Here is the input.
Amino acid sequence: MKEIQIKNYVRYLFGVSILLFILNKLYLRPWILENELSGFVLILTYSIPNLIEAIIGTLILTGILLQLRQSFNDKLGTIKDVNLRILAVVIATIYVISQELKFHNLGGNNVYDPYDLIASIMGLMGTFAVIQIFGFVYNLKKE
Here is the structure.
């Protein structure tokens, strides 16, 4: 099976997102709590995981859908890139938002916070915009 050639910026975005998640969890959030900072900084550090979850989920689902289209080219080959990107965001949105609204608890102990919901939506929309503008893989047919 031929591997899809993911653009470098997508790889970097994925890696930086994971790194930011780890740094936030292990260093930034404990430091902010220890120094009793509040307001915007506290909201931001608590909402970063939701933003990153939306980014990572959208990137992974986009890659999976593109790989599926390539693997089943005879049946799925006519599906346009934009439609796959939209489907990836829709699936990620269903998971992320339903988790935030406590329809399921697949991501762990979740406490509803409107700022988390906003961060999730920003991550979903922002990631879709970036992959729509810059693409996701090299050497795909132009639409």
Notes: The chain has a mean pLDDT of 89. The chain has five helices and no strands. The two ends are 23 Å apart (CA to CA). The helical segments are 8-34, 40-71, 73-76, 81-100, 114-134.
